[in-house]
Write a structure and sequence with these properties.
The protein is of the alpha/beta class and 222 residues long. Helix content is 34%, strand content 20%. A hairpin with a 2-residue loop joins strand 2 and strand 3.
Length: 222
């Protein structure tokens, strides 16, 4: 059984507004993420968010063909993910962890990542880095060195794993006191490599301009 944990417990401080409740083509950003996983065939979706956001995005009163539930988040992102994993229904075999602020993920992108995870146990959406990269000093001045883009990827979500693998990884993270920023970093503590999958335009809403760009992409797809 394939289920999803959608992480939406952040404060949206950098955005300056609640980006997860903001409308994307008339529907809250967080709801767009939930809808994508329901359309991709997830048997259940657990949303990690505060009660106010659950209500503001309309999820508290929305109707879905599969169970969509809410749990509170934790201090760090990894604590929120752990709370979501603990709330998954019995029988879950594969789990996707997704940032609620990535509303452009498509059912097709999810399914491509799931297919890779079924084969390898660990897969994540990502994109090859195409921008020129520079390293800077503490004053923000570019250092005269070349940073190669070869084999560099920008990580995205969803990141999909066999549930028992991800549970073991987060147990290791908790034991060692590590702070990880995504699930790929967590499973790396077990020596497990993750297959990277290109899933199409899948930007993360961080600043107000990102929402405007997401709206353009959404309308173009439509």
């Amino acid at each position: 059984m394939f289920c999803a944990v959608i992480v939406a417990a952040g404060s949206s401080r950098r955005a300056g507004f609640d980006k997860l409740a903001a409308p994307l083509a008339g529907v809250p950003v967080l709801r767009r993420s939930v809808d994508a996983f329901v359309a991709a065939g997830a048997a259940a979706v657990v949303v990690v968010c505060p009660p106010a956001r659950w209500a503001e995005t309309g999820l508290a009163t929305a109707s879905f063909p599969v169970p969509v539930s809410r749990v509170d988040g934790g201090t760090e992102r990894q604590d929120s993910v752990a709370a979501g994993l603990a709330a998954l229904p019995a029988g879950t075999r594969m789990v996707a962890v997704h940032d609620g602020a990535r509303p452009l993920i498509t059912p097709e992108g999810i399914c491509a990542c799931l297919e890779a995870a079924e084969e390898t146990g660990a897969a994540a959406c990502a994109h090859p880095v195409v921008d020129t990269l520079k390293r800077a000093d503490a004053a923000g001045l570019a250092l005269p060195e070349k940073v190669s883009r070869e084999n560099l990827w920008g990580m995205e979500t969803p990141q999909i794993f066999r549930l028992e693998l991800l549970q073991c990884a987060y147990a290791r993270v908790a034991e060692t006191g590590l702070v990880v920023t995504d699930e790929v970093s967590a499973v790396e503590t077990l020596g497990v490599a993750t297959r990277l999958v290109q899933g199409g335009a899948n930007l993360k809403i961080t600043l107000p301009g990102d929402l405007e760009l997401a709206e353009l992409i959404w309308n173009h797809r439509a």
